[in-house]
């Protein structure tokens, strides 16, 4: 065991799990590649869990942060005017498509979701919330209560009364083989049934990830949330889209993931990629909802001058370089390549994705059961070959990958080659055993 790993084990929580049999320390990065402490280089297909959105050592972001540092001001407070916040809020409000949108900045996705849930429960005078099965929304009591993955829940303590919906779980036996239209109809029926049977009085909101991150990039067929929204609108139930993983063009086909469903939500939450590694989160909401709270509030570090400098530079970079189009182009190359390889690899149970957010599900070919062990083997193989991937899903058998939006076509082809090769190695081991 390395010295650093031993020290980590001694003082860090044991539930802070590390990837790989021999965990790595990343000590350098440039473009879409990182280097570990041994000097080994990796093409980064996980990007700090979708957070290094435009890669490493980006001059525009570095210089924006350095300019702010040079003013001598790292923090002022929200009791003073913050130019960076106003500028970024203007951009996000415009991009959101939400009417009269206003923005509140936080430090994380968890805090962003707490804020959105506060706005919704306050506006609707209700503690009842709908969420999706297999979701992940963060680690505070409120965010965990709308999370639907037992591996991420320590207990059932909750400030909210939550009911969970189908919609991202068409692999379940009762939905298998259904067309998109039939599955959407079944899920809308489920929503109506929950509203008829499980709630009392008004419901505040539905919170949903357009593509579930921790859930293993599971996703509802396009159009499900539009169908849900008709039912929600009839009862005045608000809709919160958690865009922490799906925002800023990552899905290639839309700037925010929910737009793939043709829906403009009442609020969106964001974090991760916006600061390209600097801590920033927030919620963009209809102005009446945002202004509706009667108490004052602030987040001390939320939207601080450094994170705003980084976030403004990152968002400008995404827009100036049309990285959404790049995500569509490079993502299609990889997803098409994976789909082409899948039929000859019985360990591959499913390939899914949109833009630069794609996943491969590994199963035991004999039984079709989810195989976290094979996913772990894949992780070791790709590490050896110089590619960082992620793991997730309810059963820990989903390989999820989301490279920086700056990925080049050459890097996409290189990464695809490494992934397919690793799948072939894992597949051959199973077949020969
Ligand atoms: C969809 C989604 N929402 C919320 C969160 C929580 O964000 P944070 O870890 O910044 O609190 C995450 C984190 O993985 C996420 O994936």
Automatic annotation (TrEMBL):
InterPro entries: Aminotrans_3, PyrdxlP-dep_Trfase, PyrdxlP-dep_Trfase_major, PyrdxlP-dep_Trfase_small
GO molecular function, one term: transaminase activity
Domain of life: Bacteria
EC number: 2.6.1.44
Biological classification of the source: Bacteria, Bacillati, Actinomycetota, Actinomycetes, Streptosporangiales
Pfam families (UniProt xref): Aminotran_3
Name assigned to this protein: alanine--glyoxylate transaminase
Protein species of origin: Streptosporangium pseudovulgare
Transferase keyword on record: yes
Keyword annotations of the record: Aminotransferase, Pyridoxal phosphate, Transferase
Family: Belongs to the class-III pyridoxal-phosphate-dependent aminotransferase family.
Subunit note: Homotetramer.
SUPFAM superfamilies: PLP-dependent transferases
Cofactor list: pyridoxal 5'-phosphate
Keyword Transferase applies: yes
PANTHER family in UniProt: ALANINE--GLYOXYLATE AMINOTRANSFERASE 2, MITOCHONDRIAL, PTHR45688
């Amino acid at each position: 065991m390395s010295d650093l790993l031993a020290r980590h084990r001694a003082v860090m929580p044991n539930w802070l799990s590390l990837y790989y049999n021999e965990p790595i320390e990343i000590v350098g990065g440039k473009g879409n590649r990182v280097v570990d402490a041994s000097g080994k280089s990796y093409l980064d297909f996980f990007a700090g869990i979708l957070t290094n959105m435009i890669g490493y050592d980006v001059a525009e972001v570095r210089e924006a942060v350095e300019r702010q540092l040079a003013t001598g001001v790292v923090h002022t407070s929200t009791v003073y005017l913050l130019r960076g916040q106003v500028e970024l809020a203007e951009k996000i409000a415009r991009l959101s498509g939400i009417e009269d949108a206003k923005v509140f900045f936080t430090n994380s996705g968890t805090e962003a979701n707490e804020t959105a849930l506060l706005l919704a429960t306050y506006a609707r005078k209700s503690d009842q919330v709908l969420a999706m099965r297999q979701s992940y929304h963060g680690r505070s009591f409120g965010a965990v209560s709308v999370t639907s993955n037992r591996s991420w829940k320590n207990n059932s303590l909750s400030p909210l009364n939550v009911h969970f919906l189908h919609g991202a779980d068409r692999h379940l036996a009762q939905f298998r083989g259904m067309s998109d239209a039939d599955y959407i109809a079944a899920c809308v029926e489920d929503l109506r049934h929950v509203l008829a049977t499980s709630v009392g009085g008004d419901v505040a909101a539905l919170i949903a990830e357009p593509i579930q991150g921790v859930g293993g990039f599971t996703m509802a067929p396009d159009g499900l949330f539009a169908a849900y929204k008709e039912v929600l609108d009839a009862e005045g139930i608000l809709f919160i889209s958690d865009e922490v993983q799906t925002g800023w063009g990552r899905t290639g086909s839309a700037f925010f993931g929910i737009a793939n469903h043709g829906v403009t939500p009442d609020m969106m939450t964001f974090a991760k990629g916006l600061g390209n590694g600097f801590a920033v989160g927030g919620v963009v909401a209809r102005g009446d909802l945002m202004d509706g709270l009667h108490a004052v509030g602030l987040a001390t570090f939320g939207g601080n001058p450094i994170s705003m400098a980084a976030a403004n530079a990152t968002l400008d970079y995404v827009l100036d370089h049309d990285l959404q189009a790049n995500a569509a182009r490079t993502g299609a190359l990889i997803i098409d390549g994976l789909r082409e390889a899948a039929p000859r690899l019985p360990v591959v149970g499913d390939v899914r994705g949109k833009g630069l957010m794609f996943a491969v599900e590994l199963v035991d070919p004999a039984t079709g059961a989810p195989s976290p062990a094979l996913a772990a083997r894949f992780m070791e193989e790709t590490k050896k070959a110089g590619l960082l991937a992620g793991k997730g899903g309810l059963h820990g058998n989903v390989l999820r990958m989301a490279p920086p939006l700056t990925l080049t076509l050459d890097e996409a082809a290189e990464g695809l080659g490494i992934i397919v090769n690793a799948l072939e190695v894992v597949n051959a081991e199973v077949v020969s055993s």
